[in-house]
Amino acid sequence: MSIITDAEPSPEAQDRADMEKLQAGHDAALNDLMERHATPLFHFLCRMVGNEEDANDLAQETFVRVFKSRDSFRLEQKFSTWLFTIAANLARNHFRWRTRHPNLSLDAENAETEQTLGSTLPANSPTPKEAALTGERAVAVRAAVKNLPEDLREAIVLCEWEERSLAEAATILETTPKAVESRLYRARGILRERLKTWL
Predict the structure, then answer these.
(1) Quick one: which of 17, 31, 98, 169 has the fewest CB in 10 Å?
(2) What CA–CA distance (Å, rounded) separates 82 from 151?
(3) Residue 163, by phi and psi: left (phi above 0), alpha (psi -120 to 50) or beta?
(4) At 100, is the pLDDT very low, low, confident or very high (cuts 50, 70, 90)?
């Protein structure tokens, strides 16, 4: 049995301490929160919106909202869940805005082919053919996920890519774990159908 020392506080404890500092007027605490969460938040938003530039803008806006809403954060909450809830809401608003301004999404489609989001090559060096297939498969998966209905896409991104529990995904999406489970089931069915040539 391992004995826990008080040398290094857990990331959750660090988040709580930084939010406490932020609420007390120590604005620099936001930098520590950004340092810990900026990369996973950016990857989450990339998968949600399918565009690195938009994801970067939304990540910055998320931290702006964290700063503005710092007094509404309850210290018994898990900071990362609260953060991702803000980001998910911003991503939803972004999609609604883009639906009303469809001409602006053409650039996002062109940029899609150049992105390598979510695609990781195996550690052992693949042959050029294997590398090409891996790249094509990654593009096909991203496109299929991007074309899912919003509620299904959110569930897949959070539970499959972000590896969040049903309970945490439900908190972020402001619904029930049962609803998330149902969305996952439907999303997987659609993806299996759309990606059957790759399976």
Answers:
(1) 31
(2) 18
(3) left
(4) low
Which residue's structure tokens are 């503005």? 68
pLDDT value of position 11: 86
Non-local CB neighbours of 114 within 8 Å, separated by 6+ positions: none
Q: What share of the chain is helix, strand, coil (3-state, %, to 5)?
A: 70, 0, 30
The span from the CA of 88 to the CA of 172, in Å, is 7
The first and second tokens of residue 5, run together, are 């020392």
Instruction: Look at the domain 127-199 and name its fold.
Output: Arc Repressor Mutant, subunit A (1.10.10)
Task: Provide the CATH topology of domain 9-101.
Answer: Rna Polymerase Sigma Factor; Chain: A (1.10.1740)
Q: Tell me, what amino acid is at 189?
A: G
Give CATH 1.10.10.10 domain extents, the chain.
Answer: 127-199
pLDDT in tens, 104-152: 333 343 344 444 334 433 444 556 666 666 677 777 888 888 888 989 9
